[in-house]
Design a protein that fits this description.
The protein is α+β, with helices and mostly antiparallel strands. The chain is 35% helix and 24% strand. The chain contains eight helices and 15 strands. It has an eight-stranded antiparallel sheet with strand order 1-2-6-7-10-13-14-15. Strands 3-5-4 form a three-stranded antiparallel sheet, with no helix packed on it. It has a two-stranded antiparallel sheet with strand order 8-9. Helix 1 packs antiparallel against helix 6 and helix 6 packs antiparallel against helix 7. The chain starts with a strand and ends in an 8-residue tail after the last strand. The relative contact order is 0.13.
Length: 327
């Protein structure tokens, strides 16, 4: 068995690596290409910024806000429906109607990264979004106004609303590709997509795959890690405050927005979820990043997942029973 891999950037705005083990180079490359094509199909479905010919994707739903229901694919419908159901049964800290709020914070982040406080004031008149500006949009983040119809596979949202699947789409897509890989004959492999790691089967040569969790305080040379995990046939998804952010007056304003306050929140700089389903892991990584430690322990037990998190003061903690004996 030899390792074959491809790496690309264009999907889900992150570097993605597919690794598989096979006995034949030609067969392996054909499988990798099929996996990549399927991954890009899902990327186009969940993309809210671009149109594609003959495709009713997330952008089409948003473009038709207040106009008409949009018939979508099974994958897009299932992701939206599943996330809305989890909001009711697990936690309300992931809100897929946060598009208008996310867009405002993204504009301020770009301004700060371009020219700091002065650039933000030049563009918007103030360094941070005004609370009144955000509160004026709260009504557009009400997920009860998302109307789904299972029979017709249609989604309808009210005028001014914008759905954003950034907290869940990559995990769902990663899980689907893991399933697809098995269908086309992949016995062992790894998918790594910007904080989302899916392990397919068991490692064919060693006892386990080794997955390292990035240290948010690393100097950038990957010389240290928060944890090193030895795993097979499962998923590890990490959310953190160290990828997309800007700093102002000594505070870090990252991309994880609390639907309750409409501001970036969280008492941790990294949180990782370990469980079979990468889609659930992705959902929980954002949910628990915005949760108290008591909530983390409660949801971890209810969902039977392992959670590793690093507090802002640098204390590494974990809850769950899957990783006893890990480094």
């Amino acid at each position: 068995m030899q390792k074959y891999e491809i790496q690309f950037f264009e999907a889900f705005d992150t570097v993605t690596t597919f690794q598989i083990y096979d006995t034949d180079e030609k067969t392996a490359n054909e499988k990798l290409e099929k996996m990549r094509n399927e991954y890009f199909r899902l990327h186009r479905e969940f993309d809210r910024y671009n149109n594609y010919e003959n495709l009713n994707n997330l952008k089409i739903i948003n473009d038709n806000a207040g106009v008409q229901p949009v018939e979508v694919s099974d994958d897009l419908y299932n992701l939206i429906e599943t996330t809305l159901e989890r909001e009711k049964t697990i936690s309300n800290k992931v809100n897929i109607a946060m598009g208008p709020i996310i867009d405002i914070w993204a504009k301020y982040r770009e301004a700060h990264l371009d020219g700091g406080e002065a650039e933000a004031i030049k563009q918007f008149g103030h360094p941070l979004p005004e609370r009144e500006e955000l509160e004026a949009l709260r009504n557009l983040t009400d997920t009860t106004k998302i109307k789904t119809d299972k029979k017709t596979k249609t989604i309808y949202i009210e005028k001014g609303m914008k759905l954003d699947l950034g907290a869940v789409a990559k995990g769902y897509a990663t899980e689907k590709i893991g399933e697809y890989a098995k269908q086309i004959g992949v016995k062992s492999g790894l998918i790594s997509a910007g904080g989302n790691v899916k392990l397919i089967g068991k490692h064919p040569i060693k006892e386990t795959y080794t997955v390292a969790i990035q240290n948010p305080n690393d100097k950038g040379d990957n010389s240290t890690f928060l944890a090193v995990l030895n795993l097979n046939d499962t998923s590890v998804v990490t959310s953190g405050d160290y990828q997309r952010y800007f700093e102002y007056n000594g505070r870090k304003y990252h991309h994880i927005i609390d639907p309750k306050t409409l501001y970036p929140e969280g008492e941790y700089n990294s949180i990782s979820i370990i469980t079979k389903d990468s889609g659930l892991s992705d959902y929980l990584s954002t949910t628990l990043f915005l949760s108290t430690e008591d909530e983390i322990k409660k949801i971890s037990e209810e969902q039977d997942v392992e959670v590793i998190w690093n507090t802002l003061s640098g204390e590494l903690k974990e809850t769950g029973h899957m990783l006893e004996g890990e480094e």
